[in-house]
Amino acid sequence: MRDMIPCPTWSGWKVWKRNWDVFFKTYKVNFLPPFVEPLLYLLAIGYGLGMFVGEIEGIPYVLYIAPALLSISMMNSAFFECTYSSFVRMFYQKTFDAMISTPLSIEDVIAGELLWGATRSLIYTTAMLVVLIAFGAVSLPASLLVIPFSFLAGLLFSGIGMCFTAITPGIDTLNYPAFLFITPMFLFSGTFFPLSVLPEALQLFAITVLPLAQVVTVTRSLTLASLSPLFFYSLVWIAAFAAVFFFLSISLMKRRLVI
Amino acid sequence: MAVQPIIEAQNLRKEFGALRAVDGISFSVMPGEVFGFLGPNGAGKTTTMKMIECVSPRTAGNLSVFGSDVDTHPREIKRWLGVVPQETNLDPDFTCFENLLVFARYFGIAAADARIRAEELLSFVQLSEKRDVAIEKLSGGMKRRLILARALVNSPKLLILDEPTIGLDPQARHLMWEKLKALQAAGNTIVLTTHYLEEAERLCNRLVIMDRGKILVEGAPGDLVRRYAGEDVVEVDHTPQVVGCLQEMGARFEVFGDMIEVFSDHPKEVATQLLATCNPGRIFVRRGSLEDVFLSLTGRALRD
């Protein structure tokens, strides 16, 4: 039974703090993308492409994609942290091996990694939100709720990423989920065009299965300050699957590392 | 009152699928002892270390450290362990000093205490000058010393070293030995694995020689040499004539390629007799070593 249900303890914060310390040692590099990326997308897609699109569902295109940019940032920052970066720490740097030779358990270590992935999502999303506020692309004060929400959404994508990390044979095979899962989701989750233009089966698929579609629904409701009918459904979906993948990824990691 | 052993293993077994990496070994390590595990590659030394470190669960048998079972009390046991792993796993994202601080935090040591301890330990392993240097800038010997310092950050009651001097040049190895001797003199209990028989002879109070998951012999290095190799060894060129003489003399010997090793407590007489009667080529006498014990017990075939 002991092996079935992972039971991380609060000691995991020491792992979280280790990653936090490293992040702020190199903050100049780390803070560049969340400021630059939204600028590029806003200019190219929001204003450039937006010139031709005009409005979607009565909303100016820039305002329509601003929450999508935030949601994609939550996904990417957490997912890539808990796939490639965690894999490097686990496999190449042997950081996890060193950690579990101390009183930390493997559950603590993975929990700390997942919480860090969620934190990274929060940091990136907050930075990006500042830019979007400066452009007047999101409404206030409702948009400030995106900040706590980005932690929850980050936790979801951290857990999903960590599951792949636990089963990937090597770092190259992490490209599969990145291209086959993350990239399609980036495009087909109601990000740059509404789901309603897709065939009905695909729409249904998106709103039942795709995590990013849920995150976009919630974030868009917040930045437009107008509640989608799917808002609560999506929020519960995210919370439930964040919990599922949190524990599942710890279990899978234990299976990989405890031999 | 009887002294409690620091480690006690009974019939300890570890299987990876069909492979029995550790096949029913029993041993105990007493406080203040330096206890060695010797053996060729694949003997099961590292697997045994990982079970003691509470990171690899056993398949069967009993294993307790500080009187607690490794399965049920890993956190309590690991609190008092210092581990020098075979692979260098320092944190490359931090400097030397930061490595020690971050590690101290994993043990729940308060930041202020950790800073004092880290400075002391850097000085102990002679790395104070490298305090703020990135890990990648260190030489192999420096990295091993920093790992030793890291293993001491929690003032462990038991230090486990898996191949502590692997890949080091003679200077670096001697410095490492010096540090381990100092730790031993201070009353620390140390368990180490090594391929280097000279290292085991110098450092260990007691050791076991393992092969294919089993313990072949256990004892103090000197006793093992006397018991399995004799005090001295006569080495002589391998010719049929010499073999004939030795058989006539009833001497105990082994043939290794173009050399014969004769194990004897009376090396001078053996040598004199050989010189007098059977025209040997080269002949010389040396003291028996752990290497003789090791090779005679585990054979000469390559293991990987």
Highlighted features:
heterodimer, A: 259 residues, mainly alpha, two-stranded antiparallel ribbon, 10 helices, B: 304 residues, alpha/beta, Rossmann fold, Alpha-Beta Plaits, 14 strands
Detail the topology: elements first, then pairings.
The complex is a heterodimer of chains A (259) and B (304).
Chain A (H helix, E strand, L loop, with lengths): L12 H13 L1 H27 L1 E2 L2 E2 H32 L2 H6 L5 H29 L11 H22 L7 H13 L12 H10 L1 H13 L7 H27 L2
Chain B lengths: L6 E10 L2 E11 L4 E5 L6 H8 L7 E6 L2 E2 L4 H6 L1 E4 L11 H11 L4 H14 L15 H12 L6 E5 L7 H16 L3 E6 L2 H7 L2 E6 L2 E6 L1 H8 L3 E6 L2 H10 L2 E5 L2 E6 L2 H11 L5 E5 L2 H9 L6
Parallel strand pairs in B: 3-8, 3-9, 6-7, 7-8
Antiparallel strand pairs in B: 1-2, 1-4, 4-5, 9-10, 11-13, 11-14, 12-13
Write structural notes for this entry.
- The complex is a heterodimer of chains A (259) and B (304).
- Chain A has helices spanning 13-25, 27-53, 61-92, 95-100, 106-134, 146-167, 175-187, 200-209, 211-223, 231-257; strands at 55-56, 59-60.
- Chain A contains 10 helices and 2 strands.
- Chain A has one domain.
- In chain A, helix 6 (146-167) packs parallel to helix 10 (231-257).
- The longest helix of chain A has 32 residues, at 61-92.
- The mean pLDDT of chain A is 93.
- By secondary structure, chain B is α/β, with parallel strands linked by helices.
- Helix content of chain B is 37%, strand content 27%.
- Chain B has helices at 45-52, 74-79, 96-106, 111-124, 140-151, 170-185, 197-203, 221-228, 240-249, 267-277, 290-298; strands at 7-16, 19-29, 34-38, 60-65, 68-69, 81-84, 158-162, 189-194, 206-211, 214-219, 232-237, 252-256, 259-264, 283-287.
- In chain B, the strands form 3 sheets. A 6-stranded mixed sheet of chain B has the order 6-7-8-3-9-10, with helices on both faces. A 4-stranded antiparallel sheet of chain B has the order 2-1-4-5, covered by helices on one side.
- In chain B, strand 4 (60-65) and strand 5 form a beta hairpin.
- Chain B starts with 6 loop residues before the first strand and ends in a 6-residue tail after the last helix.
- Chain A binds chain B through residues 11, 14, 17-18, 21-22, 25, 93-95, 97-105, 258-259, and chain B through 16, 53, 55-57, 74-75, 78-79, 81, 83, 85, 87, 89-94, 98, 102-103, 105-108, 154.
